[in-house]
Write a structure and sequence with these properties.
The complex is a heterodimer of chains A (199) and B (76). Chain A is α+β, with helices and mostly antiparallel strands and 199 residues long. Helix content of chain A is 51%, strand content 22%. Chain A is built from five helices and seven strands; from the N terminus they run βααββββαββαα. Classes of the chains: A alpha+beta (199), B mainly alpha (76).
Chain lengths: 199, 76
């Protein structure tokens, strides 16, 4: 089956999407809280102006227009933030790990890590909030001398930690089946030797 | 003063709707480029789809434009 560009642009012929995930919804707590605070403040100002202000005064007009423009700005900012949440994705395929950091207007970054180059994967889940809401970080070590590639706000990090290790192992087997057979035989021989010594 | 107020109101609301339309058209391009099978693990809070947010965005902008227009008519 030809999977070229099937699920995402740049998908290779035999590449299959194992799974993908987005950030934990905790990242939206700040924009949601700010929006409702601004909404409450602007509504209060508007109510005061209508009830106590002079509707024929130019100052009242000016304040009403300013309040309206500010509210428009925050509506757009809030919804763009929600839409941008869906555009930031981490994709795990049978060949590589792809991180898409994209916004509607300002950003379009892609980071790719070949599964063969991953040396180590670490899951970090510290603190009350992360434990109760089940999110954390995944640190992917590509080269010991370089800083690890860190993915923050991973929902259910244990699930994706195990998934990355599984696909990495499967990828290693697919690339080098003879080496796996040799490793398995070596392991069996060493276990037999250990059993003989023990007896 | 009223003319200025209404001019600013109309221009800002039309610009707002145009901006929302532009943002959603760019979002539509992205949706076509990245076609994933969504699940409870990938949707916002497990059930909110991207198209719901997009529809709510457009409806909010249009509703706000209509609201401010009629509000201004009755108040002023």
């Amino acid at each position: 089956m030809d999977n070229t560009n099937r699920h995402f642009r740049g998908q290779q012929r035999n590449e299959e999407v194992t799974c993908f995930f987005r950030s934990h919804p905790i990242v939206l707590l700040d924009p949601i809280a700010r929006f409702f605070l601004v909404f409450a403040a602007l509504t209060t100002i508007e109510a005061i102006l209508v009830n106590y202000g002079s509707l024929k005064s130019p100052v009242t007009y000016l304040i009403m227009v300013t309040v309206m423009v500010i509210f428009l700005f925050f509506i757009h900012r809030f919804f763009l933030r929600l839409l941008n949440y869906f555009l930031e994705t981490v994709i795990i395929t049978n060949y590589r790990l792809i991180r898409l950091e994209k916004t509607i207007f300002l950003r379009d970054d892609k980071h790719t890590i070949d599964l063969n180059k991953i040396q180590d994967v670490t899951k970090q889940q510290n603190g009350i909030l992360q434990t109760f809401l089940d999110y954390g970080s995944l640190a992917i070590v590509v080269n010991v001398q370089e800083t690890p590639f860190i993915i923050n706000y991973v929902p259910k990090p244990d699930r994706y930690f195990r998934r990355i290790n599984l696909v990495k192992h499967a990828y290693a087997i697919a690339r080098n089946p003879e080496k796996l057979i040799q490793n398995t035989q070596d392991t069996m021989q060493s276990e037999q030797s250990f059993t003989k010594i023990s007896l | 003063m009223r003319i200025l107020f209404w001019t600013i109101l109309v221009i800002s609301q039309l610009s707002s709707i145009g901006f929302a339309w532009w943002a959603l058209s760019r979002l539509f391009l992205y949706i076509n480029a990245y076609r994933f099978d969504e699940s409870q693990y990938t949707l916002l809070f497990g059930f909110i789809h991207l198209r719901w947010i997009a529809g709510l965005y457009l409806m909010s902008v249009v509703a706000f434009a209509l609201f401010t227009t009629f509000y201004s008519v009755f108040v002023f």
